[in-house]
């Protein structure tokens, strides 16, 4: 096998770059008239077919004629047409009026009918794209085989580039332009022409889409899009609720998605058990328009459910803006003002070229009439010259000599019918001269003065706005008024019970399951050391014997049954070897305190808020003091009386309100039970866990205190320690 050496840079220049530029310039990126070449060729073909007025014709006829300008397959041309039609509904202002099935922009599976079955003509607003095209307003070039001429741009009288959406993927670049309301665009353009320093957002509220929905506005994001042409915004579906029949009806969806994608997404959530409120989802779209119906349970809160669906399905979707436009053959990413600058410059050129054309045509007409006016001086002379000329080709030269006129004027006079060679006819024709002279002077003034050209543009925009303007289809919701859809909203909330065992197992059992459950299954010789009730959305703090606190959401723990062992904490929390969980606390707002009691007789009351973190850390070192071994941990929602025991049977009943709060987690606390002859505080109990004959005997008003020896009649109380 032989290989030929090639310089990669040269190869790319010769082979790849021409292809890339062709795709960018001649296929994928829209130009300042708001059209890609394929759109322009199709619309111009329809214009030349006379479809701006009159009746519709078969789409197949249009497709066949368009091939004279666009040598692609018939289906590629037809698909281009489909997107422009009223039937498909992809554009705010469709350019093609249609009859028949053209599919729907909001449907993935609703296919359009074949071109032999459908009919089309140009919509009324399309006339504004072609206004004065026959007056040299734009350049024309040869088609691909040089048998026809086609326009390089259409002289669009309004900024169609902003009114109808456009998307294209070229080589190395792309374009994605959202649509804006025609009335707002016209008002913004007029205001910008009159004052360069306007705030565009005062006129363009937000993008507007043919599929409606509600656009969520973030002022800074919208400002960035308007300034740079890049950015994104969110659009969400609109719905209505029938509480009597328990269903939600979705009737407008984001422009970037389809009804089928939404239904598939909702169905998948229901199947996976992530959404339990929905019993059925149906596509009930008909001739009246889009309708997706969600049957829901009677107890469902529709607003909460829709917030979940906005988060988890395409019912809320993003539109990414990339205002990449071809201006004078070069791709540029422009903000709104940049686009308006380019369009205004383009329209000024169109109007000046039209003005120059009118000046030329009227001047030519005036020139002919000036020659005709010479005949008024002596009609009989003109007749004698013609009658006296022996050869036909000498008539014009003789008239030129006889009346001192040029060839064009003489040709015009010679072509006048004999019946029109009367003074009345000639005076009637030459009476135009004064109005023509005034019109030409006015046109020349327009051509010279930029201000007059801009006034014409403004007048045309006001006319377009009044004639074709429509109310917004897409609503505007300010971000500040939208409830933030956090992950917490998506979590189902219900009552659970947590069980912690001595051998390090954690069980989470829904209370609904617990009511019908049998005996708790445990490993051999294992016992439950703590149990507490909580909500599925609560946060769990687990404190280990290695001075560490582990944090997790209760919903992150799998539900289990009484007949299962539960989660093994060594694996769940990645505990160190021989590390053991001593205590757990559940909280929803981090209120309350944890009371740590130590062998040295001290207790530290630490606010639970000290364990809250902004970064959602899962592991907190130095969770409590290591100055003395622990004898007890317990959670205090509010202060209460506790019973302290020493290893020499000293007992003290104290109130936790006397233990001062310490905000530092590693605080050694304050002395509660004083040591006697080296004694230690061995355990803490709740007051209702002991059965003393006389509790006042052990109670103290102030701490620290030595406590009192346990009376003989109280020694029958047997305590079980968790340590």
What is the name of the CATH superfamily of the largest domain?
DNA gyrase/topoisomerase IV, subunit A, C-terminal
Q: Approximately what portion of the residues adopt beta-strand conformation?
A: 15-25%
Q: Biggest sheet: strands side by side, in what order?
A: 14-9-8-17
* CATH topology label of the largest domain: Neuraminidase
How many separate domains make up the residues?
Answer: 4
What would you say about this model in short?
By secondary structure, the protein is an alpha+beta fold.
Notes on the structure:
- It is built from 19 helices and 33 strands.
- The protein has 723 residues and is α+β, with helices and mostly antiparallel strands.
- It folds into four domains: 126 residues, Topoisomerase II, domain 5 (Alpha-Beta Complex), CATH 3.90.199; 77 residues, 2-Layer Sandwich (Gyrase A, domain 2), CATH 3.30.1360; 128 residues, Topoisomerase, domain 3, CATH 1.10.268; 225 residues, Neuraminidase (6 Propeller).
- Strands 14-9-8-17 form a four-stranded mixed beta sheet. The chain has a four-stranded antiparallel beta sheet with strand order 10-11-13-12, covered by helices on one side. Strands 20-18-19-23 form a four-stranded antiparallel beta sheet.
- A hairpin with a 4-residue loop joins β6 and β7.
- α11 crosses α14.
- The longest helix is centred in the middle third of the chain and has 42 residues.
- The radius of gyration is 43 Å and the shape is elongated.
- The C terminus is likely disordered.
């Amino acid at each position: 096998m032989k290989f030929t050496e090639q310089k990669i840079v040269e190869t790319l220049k010769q082979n790849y770059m021409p292809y890339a530029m062709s795709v960018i310039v001649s296929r994928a990126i829209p130009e300042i008239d708001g059209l890609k070449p394929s759109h322009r060729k199709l619309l111009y073909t329809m214009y030349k077919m006379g479809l701006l007025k009159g009746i519709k014709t078969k789409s197949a006829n249009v497709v066949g004629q368009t091939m004279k300008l666009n040598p692609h397959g018939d289906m590629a041309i037809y698909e281009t047409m489909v997107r422009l039609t009223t039937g498909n509904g992809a554009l705010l202002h469709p350019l093609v009026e249609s009859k028949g099935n053209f599919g729907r922009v909001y449907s993935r599976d609703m296919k359009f009918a074949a071109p032999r079955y459908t009919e089309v003509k140009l919509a009324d607003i399309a006339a504004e794209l072609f206004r004065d095209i026959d007056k040299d307003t734009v350049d024309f070039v040869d088609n691909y085989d040089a048998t026809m001429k086609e326009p390089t741009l259409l002289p669009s009288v309004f900024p169609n580039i902003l009114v109808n959406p456009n998307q294209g993927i070229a080589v190395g670049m792309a374009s994605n332009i959202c649509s804006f309301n025609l009335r707002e665009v016209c008002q913004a353009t007029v205001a910008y022409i009159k004052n360069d320093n306007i705030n565009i957002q005062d006129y363009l509220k937000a993008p507007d889409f043919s599929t409606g929905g509600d656009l969520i506005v973030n002022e800074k994001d919208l400002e960035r899009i308007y300034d740079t042409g890049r950015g994104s915004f969110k659009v969400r579906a609109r719905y209505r609720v029938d509480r009597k029949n328990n269903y939600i009806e979705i009737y407008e969806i984001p422009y970037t998605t389809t009804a089928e994608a939404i239904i598939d997404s909702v169905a998948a959530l229901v199947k996976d058990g992530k959404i339990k409120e929905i019993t059925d989802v149906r596509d009930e779209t008909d001739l009246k328009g889009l309708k997706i119906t969600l049957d829901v349970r009677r107890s469902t809160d529709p607003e909460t459910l829709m917030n979940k669906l906005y988060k988890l399905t395409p019912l809320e979707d993003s539109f990414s803006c990339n205002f990449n436009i071809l201006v004078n053959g070069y791709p540029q990413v422009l903000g709104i003002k940049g686009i308006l600058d380019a369009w205004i410059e383009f329209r000024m050129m169109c109007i000046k070229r039209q003005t120059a054309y009118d000046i030329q045509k009227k001047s030519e007409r005036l020139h002919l009439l000036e020659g005709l006016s010479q005949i008024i001086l002596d009609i009989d002379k003109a007749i004698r010259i013609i009658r006296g000329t022996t050869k036909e080709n000498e008539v014009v030269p003789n008239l030129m000599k006889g009346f001192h006129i040029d060839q064009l004027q003489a040709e015009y006079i010679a072509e006048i019918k004999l019946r029109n060679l009367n003074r009345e006819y000639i005076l009637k024709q030459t009476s135009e001269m004064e109005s023509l002279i005034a019109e030409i002077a006015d046109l020349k003034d327009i051509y010279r003065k930029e201000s007059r050209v801009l006034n014409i543009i403004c007048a045309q925009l006001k006319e377009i706005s009044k004639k074709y303007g429509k109310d917004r289809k897409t609503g505007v919701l300010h971000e500040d008024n939208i409830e933030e859809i956090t992950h917490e909203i998506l979590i189902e909330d219900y009552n659970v019970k947590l069980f912690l065992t001595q051998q390090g197992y954690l069980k989470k059992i829904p209370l609904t399951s617990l009511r019908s459950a049998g005996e708790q299954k445990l490993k051999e010789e294992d016992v439950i050391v703590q149990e507490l009730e909580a909500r599925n959305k609560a946060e769990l703090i687990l404190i280990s014997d290695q001075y560490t606190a582990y944090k997790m959401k209760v919903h992150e723990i799998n539900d289990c049954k009484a007949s299962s062992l539960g989660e093994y904490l060594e694996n769940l929390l990645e505990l160190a070897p021989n590390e053991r969980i001593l205590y757990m606390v559940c909280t929803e707002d981090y209120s309350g305190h944890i009371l740590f009691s130590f062998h040295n007789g001290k207790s530290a009351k630490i606010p639970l808020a000290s364990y809250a973190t902004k970064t959602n850390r899962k592991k907190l070192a130095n969770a409590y003091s290591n100055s003395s071994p622990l004898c007890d941990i317990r959670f205090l929602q509010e202060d209460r009386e506790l019973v302290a025991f020493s290893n020499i049977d000293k007992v003290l009943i104290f109130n936790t309100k006397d233990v001062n709060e310490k905000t530092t987690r590693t605080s050694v606390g304050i002395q509660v039970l004083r040591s006697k002859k080296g004694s230690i505080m061995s355990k803490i109990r709740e007051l209702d866990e002991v059965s003393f004959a006389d509790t006042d005997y052990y109670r103290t008003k102030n701490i620290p205190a030595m406590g009192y020896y346990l009376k003989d009649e109280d020694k029958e109380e047997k305590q079980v320690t968790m340590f």
